Amino acid sequence: MQNEKISAAIALYGPEIVKDSLRRVLGNLRKDILGNDKTEVAVADELIAEIADKAIEWCKTISKPSLKKVLNATGILIHTNMGRAPLGRKILEEAYDTLAGYCNLELNLETGSRGSRNVHPSTILSYITGAEEALVVNNNAAALVLALTTLAKDREVIVSRGELIEIGGSFRIPDILAASGAKMIDVGTTNKTRLSDYENALTDNTAILFKAHKSNFSVSGFTEEVALADLVKLGKKRGVIVLYDLGSGLLTKPPLLPLGSEPDVKSSLATGVDLVTFSGDKLLGGPQAGIICGRSDLVKKLSKAPLMRALRVCKLTLATLTGVARCFLDEKEMLESLPLFAMLNMTPEQLHLKAQRFNEALKNHGINATITETTGRAGGGTLPDLEIKSYGVVITSSEDSQQKRSDFASYLFHELLAIDKPILAILKQGELVFDVLTIEDEEFTHIASALEQMILKRHKRCRA
Question: Tell me, what's the pLDDT at 68?
Answer without folding.
Answer: 92
